[in-house]
Amino acid sequence: MPNSPSDAPRRITVQRRGPLLVEGPVEVELEDGTTVSSDRFRVALCTCRRSRRYPWCDTSHRDRAQPSDE
Amino acid sequence: MRHDHQEPRLPSARGPLSAAVMEYLRGTGPLPGDEEIAGAAAYGDDVQLALYLCYELHYRGFAGVPEDREWDPDLLRTRAALEDRFLTALRADTPVHDGVEEALAEILVEPVDGTGVTHYLRDKGELWQLREYAAQRSLYHLKEADPHAWVLPRLWGRAKAAMAAVEFDEFGGGRADRVHARLFADLMTDLGLDTTYGHYLDGACAEALTTVNLMSLFGLHRSLRGALVGHFAAVEVTSSPGSRRLAEAMRRTGAGPAAEHFYDEHVEADAVHEQVVRHDVIGGLLEEEPWLACDIAFGIDATGYVEDRLAERLLTGWRAGKSSMRTPLPSEKSHIS
C-alpha cells in the first residue's frame, strides 16, 4: 500500500541460481526475530542458505570444481 | 600554489627507460627513443615503471613535476610506444575465451582445492606475508575504482546507470569514511604500514605494477572501454570469495579490526557488484554495442593473466621464505599489542 502515489514499487530481481537482488536500503527480519539492515544501493539476499553472512549473499552458491590439471 | 609535499615522490629508476622518463619529468633530460622501448621486456621492471610514471600524471602526479606534463605531447608519444609494447604482449600472451559468457563461466566456478595467493594466505600466511600483500596491493587499492570512473562518459543507458551505482558504492556511498580506498588505508594502519599514497611504489614488484598499469591502460582509452568493463567484472567476480579467505587470514593472524573489516565489506559488497556488473553493465553494454564482446572477454582474461603472474611472483618468494618485494619492508612499527 503506497503512502503516496509517487512511491515507485521496489524492484526485486529473481534468478534461477543466485541471490535475490533487492533495491536498498533494506531491513531483513530473521527467524529469531532479530533484524539486520543494509543501506547499499542494491542488496543480494542469499537464497541457497549456504552463505556465512546470511541473509546477505557471499557467493557460496557458486559451483565448485576440482582444479584443472596443470 | 602547489603543495608538493602532498604528492608522491618520484621513485628510483629501474633501468634506462624509467630513468629517462623521470629525467624528462624533472626537466633535466630527453625521453627514451622508440627503438629502446621496442627492445625492452614488456612486463619487466623498466617498462612497467616507465608506464606507471606516465599514468600517474593522470591520478595524483609527482612532487616536483609540473601538472601540465599530463598532456605533454612528447611524453604522450612515449607513453603510446610503451603502451603498444605492453598491449601487443598482452594480446599475444593472454589465452582469450570465445565469448563473454565463457570467460565469466570460468571465474564463476570456485576451485575446491584452490592454490592461489588468497588460499595460501588463509591457510598458512604469516603476518609478514600479509603485510607484503597489503603493501604490494596498496598501489591498486589506494586508487580502487578510480580508473573505472573514466569509462562512465563512454557508456550510456543501463550500463552507465549500473556502473555509476557500483562506483558510488566503491566511493563509500557519499561517505568519506566508507570509501574503499579509505578502508584499505585503515587496514594498512592495522598492519603497521605507511598509508601515504604511493609510498610502496619503490618496493612493489613489476608484476604488481602491471596489475595497476592494466587498469590505467584500459581506463584511459575509449577504444578499450570493453576491456575496462571486462576488467571490472573480473575483479568483482573474483573478489568476494578471495576476500573471504583474506578476512579469515586477517582474523587468524590477529591483524586487527580494520584489516578484517576491509575484506568482510568486500565479501558482501562484491557479491552485489558482481551481479550488477554482469547483468547490467556487461548486459547493457552488449545491448548497445554487441561488437565489444571480444574486448570484454579480453579484459576479463587479461586481468586473470596479470593476476596469475603476480600470484606466481608472491608465492615463489614466500614458499622459499623470501620477500616478494623489491625492497623488503622494514619491520613493523610500534603498534601490535
Walk me through the structure.
The complex is a heterodimer of chains A (70) and B (337). The radius of gyration of chain A is 16 Å and the shape is globular. Chain A starts with 11 loop residues before the first strand and ends in a 5-residue tail after the last strand. Helices cover 0% and strands 29% of the residues of chain A. The mean pLDDT of chain A is 89. Chain A contains no helices and six strands. Chain A has 70 residues and is mainly β. In chain A, a hairpin with a 5-residue loop joins β3 and β4. Chain A has a three-stranded antiparallel beta sheet with strand order 1-2-5, with no helix packed on it. Chain B contains 14 helices and one strand, in the order αααααβααααααααα. Chain B is an all-alpha fold and 337 residues long. In chain B, α1 runs parallel beside α3, α6 packs parallel to α12 and α11 runs antiparallel to α14. The longest helix of chain B is centred in the last third of the chain and has 32 residues. Chain B has two domains: 90 residues, no CATH class; 220 residues, Heme oxygenase-like (Heme Oxygenase, Chain A, Up-down Bundle), CATH 1.20.910.10. The model of chain B has no long low-confidence stretch (mean pLDDT 95).
Number of strands of chain B: 1
> Which whole number gives the mean pLDDT of chain B?
95
> What share of residues are in beta strands of chain B?
under 5%
Secondary structural class of chain A: mainly beta
Enumerate how many helices of chain B there are, as a single number: 14
What is the makeup of the main sheet of chain B? none
Task: Give the name of the CATH superfamily of the largest domain in chain B.
Answer: Heme oxygenase-like
Radius of gyration of chain B: 19 Å
Mean pLDDT of chain A: 89
